[in-house]
Amino acid sequence: MQYKTEPSEKSTVKITMTFDKAEWDEANQKAYLRTRGRYTVNGFRKGKAPKHVIELNYGKGVFYEDALTDLYNDHFEEIVEKEKDNFTVVGQPQLSVDDISDEGAALTAVVPVKPEVKLGAYKGIKVKKAEYNVKDEQVEAELTRLQERNSRLVDVEGRAAENGDTATIDFSGSVNGEKFAGGTAENYALVLGSGSFIPGFEEQVVGMNVGESKDVNVKFPDDYQAEELKGKDAVFAVTLHKLQHKELPELNDEFIKDAAGAESVEAYRKETREKLEKQAKERGDAETENNLVKAVTDNAEVELPDAMIESEMDNMVRSAEYRLGMQYGGMKLADYLRYMGTDVASFREGYREQATQNVKSRLVVEAIVKAEGLKAEESEIDAKLEELAKAANKTLEEYKKDVTDSQREYIADDLVVNKLFDLLKKENTLEAEAEAPAEEKPAAKKTAKKPAAKKAEDGAEGAEKKPAAKKTTKKTAEKAE
Fold first, then answer.
1. Are 464 and 456 in contact (CB under 8 A)?
2. Does domain 152-247 have CATH number 2.40.50.140?
3. Which residues on adjacent β-strands are paired with residue 373?
4. Degrees to nearest 5, angle at CA 295 with 293 and 298
């Protein structure tokens, strides 16, 4: 067998394998011996007909496909191994037959390969530094949340429903006099003013008294997820059975000791501020590192093979499916997509842009690591293992017994990534933006959805919102343990 390789378009390599007559004859004979039991020929027991007789009955090339498959399987991986210093295969090849006859055959495999990266500027550039400062209001909000977690619902008497109340209602919705799926419930606990239902619904429950029934007239938003309800006028027959309001415990030292284990309200305020400041720093650092990666990625040039992008998209869909199942009571991706009125193909396609960015970022990061000669020394790996051993109350020798090669490699990768970010932060100018609060920006308001489905949407959308390259110490510890 002879082969040659040549670069092809869009980060692919063309491998052409040529087989002479002797190799081709041998491959056809092997294919005959392996597959002759498939063929029935009059006058012969099944599997006993001679090769030339089967060819007369089924055609001259009856064994060609199996012979080509055998030759590919016998030689492709061997070629890839020989050429590993020249290219790295990153996907399945596209096969084609260039020539086939009694005298031999030629087979071409076009394989996607890891592309070369042309690094742009990754030193001496200006990058936005994200900083989040903790405000007094945020600390007080945490105290209020602690009170709310320990609150109780108390029955309301002698007044009508107000925003903030929990109203227990029956409702039955209809469009043009016909009920629709999901539009009916009994004894549903609705927090008025929460925006859980479509616009206009909760506002009309406000003012109702316990025992009262009324029709609530609303219009489904034009972008509502259920196609058959978009923009439709609907009427909900509503009965208010019970009204409750939230009663918060008094914020004093006794409450704080019982609810949070702190010595006093002021001590808890201090602990809370320290926790929020740590979170704010971690968030700012992560965003700054993402800004660095994006900047150096945008400055680089790389031709991505489709196979790498498609593979990343598959990984992102699997990640979203796993996240849905773990966070939302085993919800299936198919159920989520059906509720959202879309399909797997469209959902997957929505990840293309981010998948492309992810793949390019990883390749650029690898290229910088290689260009700078960054690596983890054995002493550094052992130091990290010793740190993890202390956390597990073990000696280094005891801990290392349970550490696998893959876990050690994971720690080494983490150390290299840390070195990379130390380098990028040192060699570039980080410009702080205007002061920003530490809390997350509020999400864009969405139209009414079932509570579980709304959470699932947030989870699926957030499945891939992670730093492009940074691995945290926590993740390293979990992996090594």
1. no
2. no
3. none
4. 105
**Of 54, 35, 58, nearest in space to 44 by CA:** 54
CB 420 within 8 A of CB 365: yes
* CA gap 405, 411 in Å, rounded: 10
Question: One digit per residue, pLDDT tens: the chain, 481 residues?
Answer: 999 999 998 899 999 999 999 999 999 999 999 999 999 999 999 899 999 999 999 998 999 999 999 999 999 999 999 999 999 999 999 999 999 998 999 999 999 999 999 999 999 999 999 999 999 999 999 999 999 999 999 999 999 999 999 999 999 999 999 999 889 999 999 999 999 999 999 999 999 999 999 999 999 999 888 888 999 999 999 999 999 999 999 999 999 999 999 999 999 999 999 999 999 999 999 999 999 999 999 999 999 999 999 999 999 999 999 999 988 888 899 988 988 888 999 999 999 999 999 999 999 999 999 999 999 999 999 999 999 999 999 998 899 888 999 999 999 999 999 999 999 999 999 998 755 555 544 433 333 333 333 333 444 554 444 334 444 333 333 333 3
Contacts of 228 (CB under 8 A, 6+ apart): 180
CA dist 411 and 117 (Å) reads: 25
On the 0-12 / 13-18 / 19+ scale of CB atoms within 10 A, 257 is middle
> Where do the structural domains in the chain lie, given as residue ranges?
2-114, 152-247, 278-480
User: Are 236 and 173 a contacting pair, CB within 8 Å?
Assistant: yes
Q: Let me know: does 119 contact 364? Beta carbons within 8 Å.
A: yes
Report how far residue 394's alpha carbon sits from residue 404's, in angstroms, rounded to the nearest whole number.
16
Taking the model in full, what pTM does it have? 0.71
- Give the CATH number of domain 2-114: 3.30.70.1050
- The CATH number, out of the four listed (3.40.50.300, 1.10.3120.10, 3.90.700.10, 1.10.520.20), of the domain defined by the range 278-480: 1.10.3120.10
Tell me the torsion sign for CA atoms 376, 382, 386, 389.
positive
